[in-house]
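Tip: read the tokens left to right.
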């Protein structure tokens, strides 16, 4: 079965590769984005303003309901019991004592759980979003250490939590593969990401490296990382006959509805998923076993069920970033020009998911080189399924690549920024596609001036008492995406109010605020007269909040709906209107109506048009064109990351004093929310660099630090002054001229910190996290 699935993926990869080549050869005018979005040149004062989040007051007052805060009549509360072996079967199972506890209404195990199909595995079809394709509590088999084996339902959370501890389970263990080296010894296989192979080569890299007069060739490693969103993963589930209602903490409501329908063998229209507020997602809030188990328990008990994972529970069943072992080799001439770049390595996956950590993605487009070889191999471990985590691939791949470039700069005696500048490509190095917009040199120039890069000394030359001080830099990059499945609906009233609806998400990044600004500008209305509805699968579109693509997906959807709206308004306007004879491309939405672009005096308000047509409102819905633009052009957000650290001679402690991120992400739609996204990503990057590490016991496959007491993330005292700046140069080929800002902030930070540590101490750390034991 797995062999067939991999054959399907290989076939899909070939098809995607052929499509990409055809799209690259097509004329620009055939592409979405060939004509710049009118909002790049025709703005009405909303885009670019630092507007506070419109949902802020609700959150401050405690009126924003999250997934575990929906009160339902006769609610039952769930708690989970997790396996303690990596592979085997349940031999004995005694739930008698738990069932006898006061308040306990149900103990669900494989013996009495409803019959359910496995979750459709993410990327196996358009709306599939399962974290794994394993059956959920359908038999006695165990696939990883931490798999849910029992669910207790009680009248209170306290009773459920207590009763779980009373369940007695014995296991028959089977041999499991839980060691990375052991798995490598058994053999690796080439990885695929989104249907495409993660292996590329355009020449004899080994020969080029051997001939190069200067080269570095090093191994870099990064550990497992776990998701730690402030809001724990939670769901409230209820059945009304054959219809399932879920209040979920989700970044993919439409996908979840379709996937849950497949699990329970019902129609997609019978599943209603809402997710109005999400307290952080970062790639982890997809479909995992807890949503399926909550819905199954609700069906079995006939009561609404609330299931909120404990922090430990998140570690047990929600995947995170997998470990990587990377090799980067770069050969160069004396002037710094790269002859060859090699970036290869190995990551771990499970037998039941399909997400390798694609750490070579950033290397594909970052630098020009004579020849390049990229490749990711995978091994299979019996562990919880790994998944997306902020900037999957780029976050850890940029650590290796940008550290190696810093090492080469030292070998050559060239300033690290100058070395990067000398290897700027004029087109995409691997695909040959032209860049849609690339202003990384300006980001470096402006950032270096503001940061004071000219004050950087030689390694170990700056001291203050026991502290050695150093500066480092690194390039950040993350691709522009726009996924298929976008659609939007606009309802315009005769009173001049508009409601924009799309099944999108706001996980705290300000989506509702920014999209209200964008819609108001596109419609020519004040923000107070525009409402943006989202977080409900019954709204139009299949939009995922991931890959830093949601802003583009929403923007393109609203652009298509607006065009449909204007087309219908012009038909309604008729011959008695000042707009008579004008088509959709000859008008602009401005001042609460439509006006001629050539003659702004030819204007009619929405109210006037609808009033003469005797319409109280006009509703339109539209789908944008397929996202061919990022196959035709090479499209990326970029950044120049600067970091200053101090390292104690006495303890080896690293303290980050300053960070500056200088970004090139196209048009910045809201400086307030964008700065928050940049800073948030940088803080996660500091955690990646200095402290985050999932401690995985390779003897039994168990995560040993499943709490914030033992898995360390940056706290206020760890976070220094973070300065951010940007070019604000619109990308002519994207909706609103904007590219993603959600994930670019974490990329490059690990290398910037490591390079600063080297500049401070002369010690090179190639294994994350950079803990004091590696510096003493």
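Filled-in amino acids:
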């Amino acid at each position: 079965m797995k062999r067939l699935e991999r054959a399907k993926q290989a076939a899909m990869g070939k098809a995607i590769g052929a499509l990409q080549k055809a799209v690259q050869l097509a004329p620009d005018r055939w592409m979405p984005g060939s004509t710049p979005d009118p909002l790049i040149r025709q703005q009405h004062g909303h885009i670019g303003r630092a507007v506070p989040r419109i949902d802020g007051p609700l959150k401050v007052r405690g009126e924003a309901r999250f997934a575990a805060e929906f009160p339902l009549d006769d609610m039952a509360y769930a708690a989970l019991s997790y396996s303690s072996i990596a592979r085997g079967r349940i031999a004995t199972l005694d739930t008698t004592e738990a069932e006898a506890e006061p308040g306990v209404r149900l103990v669900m195990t494989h013996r009495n759980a409803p019959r359910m199909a496995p979750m459709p595995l993410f990327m196996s079809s358009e709306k599939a979003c399962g974290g794994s394709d394993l059956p959920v509590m359908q038999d006695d088999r165990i696939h990883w250490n931490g798999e849910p084996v029992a669910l207790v339902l009680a009248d209170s959370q306290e009773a459920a939590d207590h009763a779980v501890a009373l369940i007695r389970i014995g296991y028959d263990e089977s041999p499991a593969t839980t060691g990375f080296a052991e798995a490598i010894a058994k053999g690796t296989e080439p990885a695929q990401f989104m249907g495409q192979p993660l292996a590329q080569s355009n020449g004899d890299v080994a020969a080029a490296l051997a001939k190069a007069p200067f080269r570095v060739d090093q191994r870099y490693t990064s550990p497992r990382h776990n998701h730690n969103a402030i809001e724990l993963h939670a769901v409230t589930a209820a059945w009304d006959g054959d219809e399932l209602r879920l209040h979920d903490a989700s970044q993919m409501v439409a996908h979840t509805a379709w996937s849950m329908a497949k699990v329970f063998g019902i129609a997609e229209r019978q599943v209603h998923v809402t997710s109005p507020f999400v307290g952080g997602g970062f790639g982890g809030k997809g479909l995992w076993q807890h949503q399926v188990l909550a819905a199954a328990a609700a069906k079995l008990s006939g009561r609404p069920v609330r299931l909120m994972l404990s922090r430990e529970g998140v570690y047990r069943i929600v995947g995170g970033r997998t470990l990587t072992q990377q090799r980067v080799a770069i050969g160069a001439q004396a002037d710094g020009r790269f002859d060859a770049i090699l970036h290869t390595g190995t990551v771990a996956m499970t037998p039941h998911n399909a997400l390798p950590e694609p750490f070579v993605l950033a290397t594909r487009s970052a630098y020009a080189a004579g020849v390049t070889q990229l490749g990711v191999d995978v091994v299979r471990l019996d562990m919880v399924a790994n998944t997306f985590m902020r900037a999957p691939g780029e976050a850890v791949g940029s650590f290796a690549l940008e550290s190696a470039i810093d090492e080469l700069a030292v070998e050559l005696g060239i300033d690290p920024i100058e070395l990067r500048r000398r290897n700027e490509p004029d087109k995409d190095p691997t695909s040959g596609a032209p860049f849609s917009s690339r202003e990384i040199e300006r980001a470096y120039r402006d950032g270096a001036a503001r940061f004071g890069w000219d004050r950087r000394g030689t390694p170990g030359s700056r001291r203050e008492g026991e502290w050695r001080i150093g500066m480092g830099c690194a390039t950040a990059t993350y691709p522009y995406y726009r996924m298929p499945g976008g659609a939007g609906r606009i309802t315009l009233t005769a009173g001049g109010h508009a409601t924009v609806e799309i099944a999108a998400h706001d996980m705290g990044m300000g989506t509702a605020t920014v999209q209200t600004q964008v819609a108001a500008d596109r419609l020519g209305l004040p923000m107070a007269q525009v409402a943006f509805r989202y977080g409900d699968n019954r709204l139009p579109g299949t939009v995922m909040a991931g890959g830093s693509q949601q802003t583009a997906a929403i923007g393109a959807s609203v652009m298509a709906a607006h065009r449909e709206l204007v087309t219908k308004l012009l038909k309604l306007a008729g011959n008695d209107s000042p707009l008579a004879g004008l088509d959709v491309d000859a008008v602009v939405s401005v001042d609460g109506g439509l006006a001629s672009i050539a003659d702004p005096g030819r204007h009619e308000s929405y109210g006037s048009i609808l009033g003469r047509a005797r319409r109280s409102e006009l509703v339109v819905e539209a789908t944008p064109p397929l996202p061919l633009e990022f196959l035709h052009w090479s499209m990326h957000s970029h950044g120049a990351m600067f970091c200053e650290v101090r390292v104690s001679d006495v303890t080896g402690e690293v303290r980050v004093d300053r960070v500056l991120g200088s970004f090139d992400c196209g048009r910045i739609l809201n400086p307030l929310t964008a700065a928050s996204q940049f800073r948030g990503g940088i803080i996660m990057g500091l955690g990646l660099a200095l402290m985050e590490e999932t401690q995985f016991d390779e003897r039994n496959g168990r995560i040993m630090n499943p709490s914030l007491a033992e898995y360390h993330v940056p706290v206020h005292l760890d976070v220094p002054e973070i300065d951010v700046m940007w070019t604000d140069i619109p990308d002519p080929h994207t909706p609103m001229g904007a590219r993603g800002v959600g994930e670019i902030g974490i990329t490059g930070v690990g290398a910037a910190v490591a390079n600063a540590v080297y500049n401070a101490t002369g010690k090179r750390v190639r294994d994350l996290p950079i803990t004091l034991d590696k510096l003493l």
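The chain is about 25% helix and 25% strand. The longest strand covers residues 467-479.
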